[in-house]
Amino acid sequence: MGDDINDFESMQAINSAGGITIAPQNATRRIKGIAQTTTTKSGGNGAIREFAEMILDARGQDESTFPPG
Questions:
Q1: What is the pTM of this model?
Q2: For residues 49 and 41, is the Cβ–Cβ distance under 8 A?
Q3: Residue 15 in 3-state DSSP?
Q4: CB under 8 Å to 11, separation ≥6 — which residues?
Q5: Section 53-57 average pLDDT
Q6: How far apart are alpha carbons 5 and 46 in whole angstroms?
Q7: What distance in Å separates the CA atoms of residue 11 and residue 28, rounded to the nearest whole number?
Q8: Is residue 66 scored above 70 in pLDDT?
Q9: Contact 25/40 with Cβ under 8 angstroms?
């Protein structure tokens, strides 16, 4: 996940290697332009949590599959 110009080269490399890139809603336009997906939440306001839930959903899991604590 990246949100600003300093993340651009890393995100390009991740895209080239077949990885997943994501940007929070409040990322710069340039970063959003290369991110494969953008969260609906801003950085600092739930973007990481939203991404984690995307991963769990893709795996067919939810928080209840993990032990507490």
A1: 0.82
A2: yes
A3: helix
A4: 2, 21, 31, 34, 35
A5: 90
A6: 21
A7: 13
A8: no
A9: yes
